[in-house]
Amino acid sequence: xxxxxxxxxxxxxxxxxxxxxxxxxxxxxxxxxxxxxxxxxxxxxxxxxxxxxxxxxxxxxxxxxxxxxxxxxxxxxxxxxxxxxxxxxxxxxxxxxxxxxxxxxxxxxxxxxxxxxxxxxxxxxxxxxxxxxxxxxxxxxxxxxxxxxxxxxxxxxxxxxxxxxxxx
Length: 168
Known about the structure:
Blueprint: H1 3-25, H2 28-45, H3 54-81, H4 99-116, H5 119-130, H6 135-142, H7 146-166
């Protein structure tokens, strides 16, 4: 697409795309970022849009990015809480669900990861949960298979559970 075509798309659909993103994620800055990311992807991938489907493509792209953001937030929340009782992990000192306890849990978790995990496990964990990369993105970055990533993450979670379960 030419620069003028992208500018026309931007002027035509930005407001509508922003409203959709804002309605889904309830955050003005994140909504602006989502719309910008969609246009950046179009520019970087040199996507060719057909006139009759461009609005649908843009709105679907915004919706999908917003849903990905929501999913990643849920993953981060699960990571901080990890699990309680038999099925899950409780970090010592966490009695309630207030934000101070969550921050302490998160800090303790990150200390454990930095001090106790092998470099590959630590790297995969960071890429997946902190940088929110997909298994495919991690595989490309580290030049390893998706199955290896899955195995490393599974072992890492088991180590974390074992450590925090024994220290509660």
